[in-house]
Design brief:
A hairpin with a 2-residue loop joins strand 6 and strand 7. This protein has one domain. The longest helix is centred in the N-terminal third of the chain and has 24 residues. The protein is 44% helix and 18% strand. By secondary structure, the protein is an alpha/beta fold.
Length: 294
């Protein structure tokens, strides 16, 4: 049954991906009206998060951010669909790394690299980073979806440009194996998710709130002596993103514990406060924070 579902999903995505961008964004505009005004997808969660992070803003200001977020969310969906058939030339125009020389400089240290990014601006287009000229093999980390057909489809799309997708549960063992074989690798990790309560080991002050965070990337960087950088992704205009690679450390064993994690969240926070509509406000990000109820 999952093979039939996968085939159906793939055919639909493939067909829609052949539409020009202007038509896909028209579809996105229609989706926005449905999702925001009719379905009202997680509107209470979005509103609660905005009230927590921006207590001094007015209701109308919260609504403006929320509407911008839902419009962006619908754009991300059609951009994911377009990834099914977009050309290398086109994706490189829409996902531009302004300082790719940073990768070369980091590779000269003969260390593998962790690139940290977030549910901010785009993350689907990030798989295009392998189209840039560097020695290391690119890996993307993902959390397996419950729907097998949808999971396989997303993996296929994200792997189009050479990224090898790795289940987060087997990532540590694989990274250790790569280190033992002296394989130069780049690991792209989205690191702003909320851990399960039993897995919480560290909290940061993020957007003015005490926030539980994952520290796995920092732990592996320290254990294997990997360079760590932040992928600062900015939205230039609709459908176009520019990436600045911001080194965090090339000597993780020499920095204080949790400094890498704190730096990452500080960099991300700065981006969000500047353009909040591009962050994923529909997650229950602070469900374990004291005094917060959804």
């Amino acid at each position: 049954m999952s093979k039939v579902s996968y085939g159906l999903f793939y055919c639909i995505f493939k067909l829609l991906s052949l539409f020009p961008f202007w038509l896909l964004y028209f579809i996105s505009d229609v989706f926005y009206l449905i999702v925001y005004y009719i379905v009202r997808y997680r509107k209470k969660v979005v509103q609660k998060n905005l009230e927590l992070v921006f207590p001094d803003k007015t209701i109308s200001e919260h609504q403006k951010i929320a509407k911008g977020y839902y419009k962006h969310l619908c754009d991300l969906f059609v951009e994911l669909i377009k990834m099914t058939s977009i050309s290398e030339k086109e994706i490189l125009k829409r996902f531009h790394i302004k300082n790719p020389e940073v990768i070369t400089q980091l590779e000269e240290l003969n260390k593998s690299i962790i690139f940290l990014y977030a549910h901010y601006n785009t993350f689907e287009y990030s798989s295009a980073f392998t189209l840039y000229d560097f020695v290391s093999k690119g890996f993307g980390v993902y959390k397996k979806q419950k729907n097998t057909a949808l999971n396989n489809l997303i993996l296929k799309i994200r792997s189009r440009f050479g990224v090898e997708m790795i289940d987060k549960d087997i990532l540590p063992k694989l990274m250790i194996k790569h280190k033992a074989k002296h394989q130069m690798s780049i690991y792209g990790m989205i690191a702003d998710q909320s851990p399960k309560i039993k897995n919480i080991k560290y909290w940061v002050n993020f957007l003015g709130l005490e926030t539980p965070v994952f520290i796995g990337a920092e732990m592996m960087a320290k254990r294997l002596d990997l360079s760590v950088s932040f992928m600062k992704i900015n939205k230039i205009k609709r459908g176009f993103y520019e990436v600045e690679l911001v080194p965090i450390t090339t000597s993780p064993k020499k920095v204080a514990n949790y400094e890498i994690t704190e730096t990452y969240f500080n960099l991300l926070e700065h981006q969000i406060l500047k353009n909040p509509e591009f962050y994923f406000w529909s997650h229950k990000r602070w469900k374990y924070t004291e005094g917060v109820t959804y």
